[in-house]
Amino acid sequence: MEDLHTSLSAMHTTECGHLLHMMCYTQMLQKGLYQCPQCQRSITDMSTAWRRHDEEREMWQMPQHLREFKVKVNNIHGIYTVSVCGE
Q: Rounded to a whole number, what is the distance in angstroms from the first to the last CA of the chain?
């Protein structure tokens, strides 16, 4: 892979501020990879995807043994511990 700072290829700056070759960025999105390879934060605005997931989740009931389960979320705005039940 070419060095990002001397490359003549088009670049993309992610939401977290890291540089990716535009071709690499496009391939990542096509493969469903939305994490920055450097810091693991979201490389694009995921609000539409999360809203779609919320709508799908509202159609089923969380099993009792998972209702207190917590998930660690690492995104552009920080690291949070949230409930999978819609916190």
A: 40
87 class by beta-carbon count within 10 Å (0-12 exposed, 13-18 middle, 19+ buried): exposed
**Per-residue pLDDT for 58 more than 60?**
yes
Phi, psi values for residue 53, rounded to 5°: -65, -40
Burial class (CB in 10 A: 0-12, 13-18, 19+), 21: middle
- Read off the pTM: 0.55
Residues of the chain with pLDDT > 90, as a percent, come to: 9
- What letters, b where the CB count within 10 A reaches 16 and e where it falls short, cover 39-78? eebbbbeeeeeeeeeeeeeeeeeeeeeeeeeeeeeebbee
